[in-house]
Amino acid sequence: MKALVCHQITEDFSGLEVQDIAVPEPGPGEVRVRVKAAGVNFPDLLMSQGKYQMKPDLPFVLGMECAGVVDAVGEGVADWVSGDEVIGGNKTGAYAEFAILPASGLSRKPAPFSFAEAAAFPAAYITAYVALVRRANLQPGETLLVHGASGGVGMAAVDVGKLLGATVIATSASDAKLEKVRAYGADYVINVAQGFRDKVKTLTHGRGADVIFDPVGGDVFDESVRCIAFDGRLLVIGFTSGRIPSVNVNMPLIKGFSVVGVRAGEYGRQFPEKGRENQAAIRTWAEQGKVHPHVFAEVPLDDWREAWRLIRDREVVGKVIIRP
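Above: the chain sequence. Below: its structure as tokens.
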């Protein structure tokens, strides 16, 4: 089978190559899935550069999430049979014609979704759910400021924020992207190129944002501290800017806000029952047609460099999908 294999950690992604490797066999409790679509995530790029917190042993097949059809099941698997349409992930292995996934981590492909939409769904929406529901306790009527709103995770946060009844302010550095995010459902949009603090203050009548969703870090985090409401929650999602910021602790003291870390996958591992509840909640939304993953582009596996370029050059609005 074809697979995108990382055989060397390099800055320029030269250690990646599409190779023919053996079709893997599912072990006990595992399922082999014929991959129809795989979602591209920023951590995939970081992992191939050795910059992600998880560092798999070399060589490994990249890809954190996928949608496809069950092809074979391992010993002890009773919930899935050949032909079932599923979504799932396992940190690695999705950028291939076949992927081995834990049976316990699979869920049925939501009927309203295409395979591409299903592959764009799991990581982005579970991150948004854990961030906004579990960690921030976002309430109807509160103001949510979403940075990096044109990315896959950012658009999911906009989608979930609106579903929860918040007023959503979305930011990006591109007017063209912001128009698409506005059409997607954001109440207000701000181009961060000229700063955003004063505009957020104006839109919230001086109060500031109750919840700030920040996958960007760097200067965006620094300025967010200046426009967060008293009793606000500043959610640390990631650092796509490349700089990990810091905050003087007198600022949370004086302004009465919290800095809250979000690791959606680890949250589910630490609290398995809540993790199952999280997955069930977003699946219900999907089946009811209440959430809408946005697919920006679908790229063949052999053209993976184009997918990487779109992510790296920040051209994406929503998610990029790789089709093996």
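The first helix runs from residue 42 to 48.
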